[in-house]
Amino acid sequence: MHTSTDPSNTPNASAPRFSIDENVAHVSHTTSFHQSAAMYAAQMVRFQYTKTAKNQFRRECLDHLKASLAPGASKNKASPA
Description:
Number of helices: 2
Largest sheet: none
């Protein structure tokens, strides 16, 4: 059995911890939800026959994009009503 330890793999050499504000790769669930919903609405536009239905999906797409880009969207944990 292998008994030696690799010094780079010890608890003292763990990755640095950043707060949520410092972590650039952090995307909240709310932001991710709104971006996914916007993509779905944008894709659904082409499958609609009437101009009213197409405009409804376009509006939904824009509303979700605006919600995902809102200043508090990444910190807001509850989905807006």
